[in-house]
Specification:
Layout lengths: L7 H12 L3 H11 L2 H18 L4 H8 L3 H13 L3 H13 L1
Helix pairs in contact: 3-5
Length: 98
């Protein structure tokens, strides 16, 4: 956990996210909370993480997602050296798909 990020307000936000129960509730909450641009950026980074996890190469990821190589590098750094946030979600989604 990133101690620089943690505070009471962030805890409350994340408790709110954890309370969401359906995709529709997620869409409604995040559409109210974020701009479309912010949501699309998060979607893109998550897609990059998924593709990196599959072993895809940067040039394919750039072509298919439109992400910059800087974004891909940042996501790759998080996958390799981060707090396992991407890893936890990717692994859980894979398990649900099986």
């Amino acid at each position: 956990m990133n101690s620089k990020l943690q505070d009471a307000g962030m805890d409350e936000l994340f408790r709110g996210v954890l309370s969401l129960q359906t995709l529709e509730e997620c869409y409604n909450f995040f559409e109210d909370l974020c701009t479309i641009t912010e949501l699309r950026a998060m979607e893109q980074r998550f897609e990059v993480a998924r593709m990196l996890d599959e072993g895809r190469i940067y040039s394919d990821i750039v072509r298919e997602t439109g992400a910059s190589t800087a974004t891909i590098s940042r996501v790759n750094k998080c996958l390799t050296y981060g707090t396992d946030g991407y890893r936890n979600v990717l692994d859980r989604l894979k398990a649900q798909d099986e």
